[in-house]
Amino acid sequence: MVLIPVRKNKLQAAWEGPFKVVKQLNEVNYVVELSNRAHHHRVYHVASLLCGQLAGVVEEYVVVDCRYPYEYAGGHIKGALNLYREEQLARWFLPDPLGTTPCPRSSVLIFHCEFSSERGPRLCRSLRRMDRDANRYPELWYPELYVLRGGYKEFYQHFQDLCEPQGYVHMRHKDFRAELRNYQRRKQPWSLRRIRKELFKPLCPGSPFP
């Protein structure tokens, strides 16, 4: 069964099928054979999740925008978090070293940057590594991590109504050259390395699993 947008309102959908999955392009895109339609093969995008069409399947999701703040301010996916540094991921998604915050809730996390070719995939891998270090294999707080294919650039081209504000600022925009140099010069502070060392230290034998 496939959720297919209603012709009169693309933000609404109805279940149709069953249909045959011809090919899986990646984690979120599939080629589906629609034998009873004029266009036999169509690709379904993660925007179905953002439109609420999968509310009965996915209980909770978070879109992580890994672009720099001036890019985010110029236009971003509705509801996306702007986290572009590794320590921001640790503070937002992982419990603090003192144990004063509860264990994270399992959510579907969708990472992206401008093209989803460097910053988004890198931070996605970083969170998976931190999650692995903080848990005993194969346990994970966030087992479902995805990277949005084509990044914000491709998403904005097709789904401007799901962006706020409805704009697109390139990373190398001429008006933000100073900001770009500043963000690219920043390195991970010593304090974060110390936090991570405390957070990911090995559990003592017999200690309860968090």
Short description:
The chain folds into 2 domains: 1-44, no CATH class; 57-191, Rhodanese-like domain (Oxidized Rhodanese, domain 1). The chain is built from 7 helices and 11 strands. The chain has helices spanning 47-50, 69-73, 86-93, 119-134, 151-158, 177-185, 190-199, and strands spanning 2-6, 9-16, 20-24, 30-33, 41-44, 61-65, 76-77, 81-82, 108-112, 145-147, 163-164.
Task: Tell me the span between the first and last alpha carbons.
Answer: 38 Å
The run of helices and strands is: EEEEEHEHEEHEHEHEHH
Residue stretches low in confidence (pLDDT < 50, at least 5 long) are 37-44, 188-195, 200-210
CATH-defined fold name of the largest domain: Oxidized Rhodanese, domain 1
Give the rounded overall mean pLDDT: 77
Describe the structure.
The chain is of the alpha/beta class and 210 residues long. The chain folds into 2 domains: 1-44, no CATH class; 57-191, Rhodanese-like domain (Oxidized Rhodanese, domain 1). The chain contains 7 helices and 11 strands. It has helices at residues 47-50, 69-73, 86-93, 119-134, 151-158, 177-185, 190-199; strands at residues 2-6, 9-16, 20-24, 30-33, 41-44, 61-65, 76-77, 81-82, 108-112, 145-147, 163-164. Helix 3 crosses helix 4. It is globular, with a radius of gyration of 20 Å. Residues 37-44, 188-195 and 200-210 have low confidence and may be disordered.
